[in-house]
Design goal:
With 213 residues, this protein is α+β, with helices and mostly antiparallel strands. It has helices spanning 52-55, 69-72, 133-155; strands at residues 2-5, 9-13, 19-22, 30-35, 43-44, 47-50, 73-76, 84-87, 93-95, 98-99, 108-118, 162-163, 166-172, 178-186, 189-190, 198-201, 207-209. Strands 1, 2, 4, 8 and 11 form a five-stranded antiparallel β-sheet that branches. Strands 3-9-6-7 form a four-stranded antiparallel β-sheet.
Length: 213
């Protein structure tokens, strides 16, 4: 999980204020916006994000169909009070123009920042004080063995690089066995400069790679 948070900022938007589209990739894997606004005190102020289809606009392009604003941008309302929106900061985003108030007490007020410092997190009973160094080394060795096939596959070139953040939850029972594995957050995207996606094999058993262009 992400165990850290950048120093939070607070922003105020009143009549005519907006924020143009931008990205915040260097700050952390996930951005967040926490609303301190109340409903009905202004118009606009939505968090705007480009829809995924626009980020890969020419893939599957259909020149016989038009698209409207809602298919180009996603608008996330700034209220109610306490709403927290987390998103991939690499996706172009901004703030829609605010109308209807010059009173800072009634404007779009948000706290925003970035989650960072990914590391392994434990939830539930786990008494580390009772774990001696020998048992810790044994567990690390088992983990290395389990990960070895994945590391070897990544090194063959059959799987291209990916960019982004992946958080996986493992449910472990009292016997130490993994009961369930779930991806709780996945922003991974293929690196088109190193794409090696095998989508099948031809009649001669040669790998067929997906076109990255």
């Amino acid at each position: 999980g992400l165990t850290g948070i950048t120093p939070p900022w607070i922003s105020l938007y009143t009549e005519g204020d907006m924020q143009n589209f931008h990205t915040d990739a260097p700050h952390g894997p996930l951005a967040f916006v926490l609303s301190l606004s109340r409903e009905g005190e202004f118009l606009g102020g939505e968090t705007m994000m480009l829809q995924p289809r626009i980020l890969e606009y020419w893939r599957g392009f259909d020149g016989n169909k038009g698209i409207e604003c809602s298919s180009i941008m996603r608008f996330i309302p700034p209220a109610p009070l306490g709403r927290c929106v987390a998103f991939d900061p690499r996706v172009p985003h901004g703030v829609n123009r605010v109308f209807g108030t010059q009173d800072p007490r009634k404007g779009r007020i948000v706290i925003h920042g970035w989650f960072n410092q990914p590391e392994t997190c434990w939830f539930g009973p786990w008494d580390t004080e009772k774990q001696d160094q020998t048992s810790q080394r044994q567990r690390l060795k088992k983990l290395d063995v389990a990960l070895e096939p994945l590391v070897e596959t990544l090194g063959t070139g059959e799987i291209g690089r990916v960019m982004g953040y992946l958080a996986v939850r493992l449910d472990v029972d009292s016997e130490g066995l993994v009961k369930e594995v779930n991806a709780v957050c996945d922003t991974l995207q293929a690196d088109w400069d190193d794409f090696r996606g095998i989508i099948g094999y031809d009649e001669a058993d040669n790998p067929v790679l997906e076109d990255a262009a």
